[in-house]
Amino acid sequence: MSFDYSGTLDTEQIKSKAEELAKSLQYEFDDLSHLCQALYCKKIGGSKSNYANSAIALVGDNVLKLALSRKFYMLGADKKSINKQKEEYENNKQLKKVCDELEIYKYAFNDENFYSDNLPNNKKLPRPKHDPYVEAVIGAIYLDRGFDYANEWINKQLIPMIEESL
Predict the structure, then answer these.
(1) Predicted pLDDT of residue 76
(2) Phi, psi (5° rounding) for residue 109?
């Protein structure tokens, strides 16, 4: 695994959990280290500034915006309509629902443990209103194989999940 990680968790366990999530995402990574990077946090369940994945999440956010803009443009939408529809699809509420449905949080990890191992009485830790994990996953897919693959995953996997809750 080429992900630069120096914590106490076993890298094979990190890789195994990332492979499990990749199957759930229905995406086969060429380089799983991108997904590992997307799931790594310094502090799980804190403010947005505590996420080590914020750079890859920023990349994913921009890829998502481009994919949605392209989709709506290809459907004949004008600028105003593209912006309105894009906002509906990429809002925090929608992305958080996707994250919860895919249970991405249980694969998140910091230097000492996985999110799922850090739960007192199996309660979810508080999370920010903004969900960086879905965007980080998109960033990982983009870094793994480029825009066309990320766009395909967004259109085949992510958008249908979002549309179910609109």
Answers:
(1) 97
(2) -145, 160
Sign of the C-alpha dihedral, residues 73, 77, 78, 79?
negative
Q: Which residue has the higher pLDDT, 97 or 43?
A: 97
The three-point CA angle 130-35-48 to 5° equals: 25
- Residues 109/125, Cβ–Cβ less than 8 Å: no
Report how far residue 64's alpha carbon sits from residue 66's, in angstroms, rounded to the nearest whole number.
Answer: 5
Q: What is the dihedral of CA 61, 62, 67, 72, to 10 degrees?
A: 100
- The CA-atom distances, in angstroms, between 106 and each of 14, 28, 41, 63, 74 are 12, 19, 12, 24, 36
C-alpha 26/C-alpha 102 separation (Å) is 11
Cα–Cα dist 18/29, whole Å: 10
**Residue 138 has what pLDDT?**
97
pLDDT band at 52 (very low <50, low <70, confident <90, very high): low
Q: What is the pTM of this model?
A: 0.88
In angstroms, the first-to-last Cα distance of the chain is 38
Question: What backbone phi and psi angles, to 5 degrees, belong to 114?
Answer: -90, 155
Torsions phi, psi of 71, nearest 5? -55, -50
